Amino acid sequence: MKHTERGLLRAYLDDQLDPQEHTAVEQHLEDCAVCKEEQAALLRHATRVHESLEQLPYLHGEENVATAWAAFQKKQEDWKEREEKRWPLSRRLLFAGAALSLVTIILVLTVAPVRAWAESLLAVFRVQRLTVLQIDPASLKAGELQSNQLLNQAIGRLLSDQITVTQKPEKPQLITDPATASKMAGFAVHLLPDATPSSLLLKSGGGMQMKLNRDRIQSILDEAGRSDVQIPWSVDGATIGVRIPTGVLAFYGNCGDIASRVAAGREQNNPRPVEKGDTSCISLIQLPSPVVSAPQDVDPGQIAQVALEFLGMNANDAASLTQTVDWTSTLVLPVIRGKVNYQQVHVNGNEAALLRPTNGAESSRYTLMWVDNGIVFALSGFGDDATAVNLASQL
Amino acid sequence: MVSMTDRWDEAEFEALFREQYARIVRVIRRIVQRDSEAEEICSEVFLRLYRSGPRAAADGMAGAWLYRTATRASIDLLRARRRQQSKEVDENDGSQAEDPAEDALTLLLRQERIGAVREVLARMKVERAQLLLLRHSGLSYQELAQAMQVHMGSVGTKLARAEAEFTALYQRCQRRQQKTPQLQTAKEEGR
How many domains in chain B? Predict the structure, then answer.
């Protein structure tokens, strides 16, 4: 005999079955000792819960809806007022997203694509968490790489031949109100409470596809002096799609005349715009997770290892780190040891990276990065660690 | 947080508030310890709905949304209180003022029982605690399915599971209380 499901028995006790089901369960229970026993246990539990919840004192408060509505309206007005204060007409444009966008693009190109292979068919990864990878500057030789003409030519060739831009990013755009920002960005924009942004900018997203050519990538590695790092054959011919969504940048305090710099165009883009402002400047960048898609027939571990070795890890360390990271959902943030101090903190339960330049003048400037609900946040300003974390936690 | 892709019609929202307020605050009052807290949570929940825009409550789901959010917020408060109380000595939990004639021992026992129920609710998986509280508030299976965004056919199973978890945790809690009567007495004397 087939026994009645527990859920049906439970619904039977509450008289929540339709008449047909009710009769069927009733008849079954007459003949089935097992189900009858089960039902008795369910009844015991239900009774225990009922009696227990009955113990909870019922607070006999005011149930006057009119009073409650008046109180609610007051709360609602306060909220509306705060929202309006938060979003006045922006006086200035801004541009500090360049640095983050650049970092994001570099990350996506160097490290992120490897994560994509982990998923089946057309693999898609979305950033859910963030981890910091400290890189030994000696092995990176950034200066040497920059001045190596052959290397630059090789990279230039790779970029022009192999990359198709599917969505060209537009110029940053000044936004005057939060509703428009949220609407245009396609996500609910988070803002600091009780503060008024001095500038608010929408940084449109971009998309591209890159066809991997093993020989060319290998030639870049060779040129960079890393012939020891071998690109696996399996990547050859694979197409990777990268889509960086639209992000929103909010500035608070005096961050300099960002508007004119942005309006002036690319050559004016200052990677450190805060130098033109003062220590009251706080920037908040939020960007939904970049999405990378790629075919599945490549071993993600191998690619991750190549990227990590390129960033200066020795083969053994790279291999063991590869095993510990979920490449489909982790944004790996490379940080150069000795140039940047890194500390792991928590923002609203999410792991966050608190970064500070090590050199004196800039060391009071923090950058706090974390991922919450698929959105990558970067908060930057001047102050101590507690100030940074407190500010971030209010978002 | 700003989510303004859509806005409420003010009159529509007021009508909704007037229609739903009493039943939502009633559910919250059962969970939290102070009336002021219940009103504050209820007001906050409506504000959240207002901020979320009408889409959150589309297709007549406002009641379901409010029940879900209100029980969640109330349980969150219970949990926060529980963490706080692990650091501080218990204070007034709303059970004291009910009957001034109640003798000290009865009051103490009742407080222990109430404390155990809240402790269990705070320890349970939130969705299960919500389900029990909403069922206890008289929601039908169909209403529960809407409020908790689950398939109606699974409500019975989920409820049975939640009740089993509650019972097991409650028994454990009682056993622990029975084991520590001396501690309790010592604490009382120390006050």
Answer: 1
